[in-house]
Amino acid sequence: MDSHGSSLDHAQSQLSGVEKVSCGWHKPTHSRSSSTASSRHSRLNIKDWEVMDDFPVDLNLTGENMQDANTPGICEEKNMFHVIFSLIFSKGKMHGALDVSLAVMSVNKKARHIDLDAGDILYHMKAKTPDLYYIWVTKLSAHRMHKKNEAAQVHNGFLQALSQSSNLSHKNSPMQEMGTSYVGEPLPCVNPAVNGKVSAWLQTQEPDICAQELTRCQIELNELQRLVQKLHSLESGQMINNGDLQRIISMQNLLLDKPKKKSGKIWGHSHTLSRAEALGMLSSSHLTSSAHLGTSVPSIPDYVSTQATPPASTSSESKKLHQDICSMSLKVHASLRTAHEALAQERQRLQDTWSSRELHQTTSAQINNLCSLAELDVKSRHTKIHKLSVSSDSSEESFRTVLQRKVCLFLPRIYSSCSHFRAEYFDACDELMCASSSEMSDESGLSDGSSNSEPDEAHAMASRKYRASLSKAPAKLNSIKNTGRRTTLPAVCPDNSHVGLMTILYNNIGKDLSRVSMPAALNEPVCLLQRLCEELEYSDLLDTANHTDDPYQRMVYIAAFAISGYATAQYRNRYKPFNPVLGETFECIREDRGFRYISEQVSHHPPISACHAESNNFNFWQDQRWKNKFWGKSLEIMPTGMVNVTLKNYGDHYEWNKVVTCIHNVLSQQRYLEHYGEVIIRNLKSSVCTCKITFVKSRYWGSDGSKNEVQGQVLDETDNIVHRFGGFWHEGIFCDTLPNLQCIWKPNPQPKNYMTYYGFSSFAMEMNELTPDLKPLLPPTDTRLRPDQRLLEEGKIEETDKKKDEVEEKQRERRKILAKRGEEHIPRFFRKTLDAAGKEVWLYNGTYWKIRDNAGFVNVKNLELW
Ligand SMILES: CC(C)CCC[C@@H](C)[C@H]1CC[C@H]2[C@@H]3CC=C4C[C@@H](O)CC[C@]4(C)[C@H]3CC[C@]12C
Q1: Ligand 1 binding pocket mutation candidate from 663, 674, 760 (most atoms within 8 A of CB)
Q2: Which of 83, 353, 494, 735 has its CA at a distance of 20 to 30 angstroms from the CA of residue 582?
Q3: How would you classify the pairing of strands 653-656 and 643-647?
Q4: 560 within some domain
Q5: pLDDT tens, residue by residue, 744-799
Q6: CA–CA distance from 333 to each of 184, 231, 513, 805 (Å)?
Q7: CATH number of the domain that 838 lies in?
Q8: 513 C-alpha to center of ligand 1: Å?
Q9: Ligand 1 binding residues, C-beta < 6 A
Q10: What is residue 768's DSSP assignment?
Q11: pTM, two decimal places
């Protein structure tokens, strides 16, 4: 390997901790969740982050001159990185690859972090030393630049190819068909070849606005050119040939260089005209006395006087011509402007099409490169919206807009809030940093930092085994039971693939996703309060736990319940739940499942939803708030609240955290959800056992079969594994250490045509149902009575949009009134308090069911929210 190559190896060996969630069966550290990592994160400064912006791309750069462009070693870079940047982090095995040039790259020099977001995969890396950080950033940047220039070349080649192939079609250009005279050579700025090709290209999708605009532009430009030529011929009178011109110019210069004293002071100072000025003078002066032209050359005084008093005979004609040229120029300008707009739209459309799967599968590598050009521009926008990430509990309203030099500002609390996922990342790094020398001598030069992780093969085997066992296990039948509730929605979901999310996000830079008002077509007819209730779909697992004497087995059921809440995400990535307004409530009484649930939006800034459910077997409560982090293509949602469950028979109080939910490819139709990180379940009433669940981050290089994997262990007081279980959060959980091998949980089958109904499960379909007998019992704040959500459910999209604006406006007004009075909104059914760890939590205050069961909401004062 050449010296460059070995330095790369060395660099690789030192680039630690490609972010990962370990796949092995290792024991959890019994420290309290992510607190140590959090404090470390909180020290990171927002202004230390920078999004590596697109390098200036010179469309004409060739492979050779790229070497000159201050980018030493580009060719070697190419060899080293090939088209993709390979990530190797386990004993020399190639584990993954991503196209660095298409990823959004953010760096933090101070912390030596490099993040690459390729939409499907999000890598967080940390260099061990500043030198290595520098080497890596330089290499990655150089590679990105190289790729972009390469793409630019392909783009040029593509255009050229188009121009050659459409020479014929150009002959029949619309302009000629319309009989426009086309005089002389084209204007340099309007290359008819390119124009013809572009319009030919665009015309394949007739009727195409771009083609029309361009045609009009071309016609106007030709008209303009005709006028200019007329002006020229008028001015020259077709009497001057090139030789004459030369002679005139040089003589003029001769005279000008030695101006007569008197005449040189005409403007009060001696004025030596430049060659260009001389030309201008000539063109004007010879208008004055065309009879002299070619035989005598006017002197400065002549010139000046002719400027002052142009002969009447020609002035009106030339004036008219000038006016025509002026108005035609204005027209051309306007046309070009609209053409530009049309092209911008066209580009967006192309980009959307590009995102569609079929195109991905069928296009050639060349087109691929061409599209990456469009991506270049998209990325500079990404840079600007990168800051869309924000902590929901930000006291500031806004995130800062990214600076022109693309410095990306992340709020520090994003880090301080980071869940296990980030915590693990840091732990992994630390581990690596300590591991040092032995790893450096490792042949691959890289380590995955998970020294205690199970070998890949064993892990793969285990997950295959779980999957096979799961597929054999029958689904629980409770979903098929007739509940007497509706089994479908009143209307199918709207197609929202046309909604340009990019524009929405771009126009809302600095706002939390939950605060961005989106078109109704992006919403699903449930709100977040209802979405939280959906986590109780498999409450039967809690019932089982409450009837399981063995505390370790009990824990297995609690763990399965914690995982089951994520299952619905599999089909729910196209729409966004409604954001509840402050004071909005939602109740859900399920006699069939034996629980009743109440939730309330208790805070608006930051948005916090609190909920509580009770049954004969358990109590369940949580307050959910989350922070978003936008990485350029993916959006990570980091919930911060804890989930609580108490079991009536054993007095257990389980508490656990939630993992990160990542919306991959958030801006495109390839959007999908992934959950990753670690959940630690503790029983606050007993230390007999704890449980650690790992939501395995998908490996890009893995087949789809490895997606959504979950593994867990129940550990005794001395950290011995008592039970192991695993599976997939969308397919089920299997435990092979229980007395009989058992499928502990399997999601209910989806209802018929679920994709035309927002991907809802049967349970979700039942959420917003409003029956006549229920209506009078609900408080007016109940989500079921929210008019915009109801309209959406009925498929009335336009009306929903209007109503949604009204509801949101009303909320703003209420807030203003409160602020004026210096008052604060006080939630009705939940109170804020501190838990044992000193964390702020929202607990049910017991009043909701009291009112409902006694006086009824019609007899008490309620908020009027809509
Ligand atoms: C722009 C739109 C159309 C994209 C779709 C965004 C959807 C997928 C997002 C918006 C809000 C998100 C939810 C916000 C909060 C939580 C609570 C957390 O504990 C689990 C994930 C969950 C439930 C998220 C799932 C994904 C979600 C529903």
Answers
A1: 663
A2: 494
A3: antiparallel
A4: yes
A5: 999 999 999 999 999 999 999 999 999 999 999 999 999 999 999 999 999 999 99
A6: 22, 20, 38, 38
A7: 2.40.160.120
A8: 10
A9: 501, 522, 531, 569, 573, 575-577, 624, 626, 637, 639, 658, 661, 663, 673
A10: T
A11: 0.60
